Amino acid sequence: MTATVPNDVRPNRTDPHNTASNGPAVLDENSAPDFHGEENLERARSQAPEDYDLVILSSFGGPEGQDDVIPFLRNVTAGRGIPDERLEEVATHYRANGGVSPINEQNRALLEALREALETRGPNVPITWANRNWEPYVNDVVQKAYDDGARKILVLATSAYPGYSSCRQYREDYGMALEKLGLEGKLQIDKVRQFWDAPGFIKSFVDGLVDGLTEVRSGIASAEKTAAGNGRVRIMFCTHSVPTSAANEAGPRGVDYEGGSAYVEKHLQAARAVLAGVEAVDPALLDNVDWELVYQSRSGPPSMPWLEPDVNDALEKLEGEVDGIVLVPLGFVSDHMEVKWDLDTEALDTCKNLGFIATRTPTPGVHPEYIESLRQLIAERVSSTASSQDPAELEQNRDSVCGSRGWFDACNPDCCKSARAKVDRPVIANYQGDDAQAGARS
Fold first, then answer.
1. What is the total count of domains within the chain?
2. What residue stretch is flagged as signal peptide (predicted)?
3. Which residue from 149, 164, 259, 329 has the least number of CB within 10 angstroms?
4. Dihedral, CA atoms, 423, 160, 37, 387, nearest 10 degrees?
């Protein structure tokens, strides 16, 4: 059920310098066949399904009013010693929107869509919601679940890609909750695998890109004057930047990733799958089009290397070279603040200043096929709805549109682990097999 995605769907203009620091010197469609990612790890990826009592939709969280903004940002930056004066610089993004992050309302909509999907199509497991940095907090939700009788919980994080912030930190959230609440050995908490390759996740971006390309081409055709006069369109697949050190640590150790990182590689795989989907709808939409992977929302001191290029820097380099831009928020599952500010405000303003006809396509949100893919990811972990009770058969039955075997139900102990961590934090979904690194290339 794994689709084969060509590596040369359309020219990839990705800047070779946007790789992790241990990546290849050149990053393009011709380099992809030389990399196998963690596909060369032979160990099992699927775990046997179980009877779960509860699913927790787990997210980042966000403020819900002006008085919440600084306390929320203190939670996000806890332990870094950042003064409130500096936090106020970031707070302006929230304050411009009434102090409210859209992420909470979007998670409520996602929660309701998933609840309806589970009730109508199964599995018949209740679902609730928890946040890392704002109410409802993980610890509170876990304690209530235990008090209500839950003994096996499955966590679905609102993040599609492997990486510390997008995967391991969620595993730590729940590992630390079990430790703090004294529930180790009393409550089992597992996770749903990362889902960058899920058909519905990709399909939501295909639909948005089809509409976005149509809109930009129409705008170019009707414009009295265009930026370059050549009708060219650049697709920019946008995701959150991370420090190159964190990118290097994404994924299990000893693996040869395209771009030097599971984080970079999976975004490239997803981008190619989206392009293949558009090509299947209407190949003409991709005529005179090329694409690249760009980054946004970096923070931290300028001296710390982060994945590049920044979306605005990449746009400025295109001055006079293209007429149209389609921004695809490939690294995000909903239109939260970093999408609304960094893309809808800053990046589209840059496009306007440069004379580009531009649009930003939607995030998955509650796209019906995205919801169905999430439901299926839950269903494959639950005994009553899994396609098999045998982990090997479950893995064979996985549905991927990125040419992969999918991510791990339980991650290697060193997966996405930060070398800067002073102490090992407890985690959930930790793979205990002796074959964790079997087949990996150093």
1. 2
2. none
3. 149
4. 110
Domain carrying residue 138: 54-195+367-396
Identify whether the C-beta of residue 324 lies closer than 8 Å to the C-beta of residue 357: yes
Residue 294's H or E segment, with its range, is: strand 289-296
Q: Assign 430 to helix, strand or coil.
A: strand
Q: Same domain for 356 and 217?
A: yes
Residue 338 labelled as part of a binding site: yes
- At 325, which helix (H) or strand (E)? strand 324-328
- Helix, strand, coil distribution of the chain in percent, nearest 5: 40, 15, 45
* Contact present, 336 and 103 (Cβ < 8 Å): yes
23 and 83 inside one domain: no
3-state secondary structure of 23: coil
Residue appearing with tokens 């203009």? 13
Q: At what angle do helices 103-121 and 368-379 cross, to 10 degrees?
A: 60
Nearest to 393 by CA among 2, 46, 39: 46
Helix, coil or strand: residue 243: strand
User: Do both 352 and 206 map to the same domain?
Assistant: yes
SS3 215: helix
Angle at 333 between CA 251 and CA 279, to 5 degrees: 90
C-alpha to C-alpha distance for 210 and 206, rounded to whole angstroms: 6
**124 CB-side CA count, 13 A:** 1
Domain of 260, CATH number, reads 3.40.50.1400
Weakly modelled stretches of the chain, pLDDT under 50: 2, 4-6, 9-11, 15-33, 442
Distance, CA of 9 to CA of 32 (rounded, Å): 12
Burial class of residue 34 in the structure, from the number of CB atoms within 10 Å of its CB (0-12 exposed, 13-18 middle, 19+ buried): exposed
CA distance 275 to 258: 18
Taking only the tens place, the pLDDT of each residue in 10-53 is 445 554 444 443 333 343 444 444 556 787 788 899 999 999 99
170 is in an annotated binding site: yes
- Give 436's contacts (C-beta < 8 A, 6+ positions apart): 43, 252, 412, 413
Closest to 360 in 3D by CA, of 209, 248, 230, 239: 209
46 annotated as ligand-binding: no
DSSP 244-276: HHHHHHSSSTT---GGGSHHHHHHHHHHHHHHH
To the nearest whole number, what is the mean pLDDT of the chain?
A: 89
